[in-house]
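Q: Sequence in, structure out?
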Amino acid sequence: MDKTRQPKMTGNLFSRFFLFIRIIVLSLFWILFFTKYKKGEKNYGWDLDHIIPTSSVNTEDELIKLNHFSNIQPLCSYINRYIKKNNYEF
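A: Exactly. Output:
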């Protein structure tokens, strides 16, 4: 008789803890991204900002490197659009 076996949970405690931390961080980022920033009477959301602006590239290879996730940060829309703009040093 062949019985259908249920898959076992694989992975040790460290990998499960790491997955849990990643889910928490992504959840906090999601909440932060959709929260409104209030300045005066206008509500501003959040943008995904390039730390080093993509407008500063000269080659396609540099553009690919600047689109890496390590060059992206959440930033308030007001600050990103009106204060930082295309500046590297903010």
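The CA atoms of residues 24 and 30 lie 10 Å apart.
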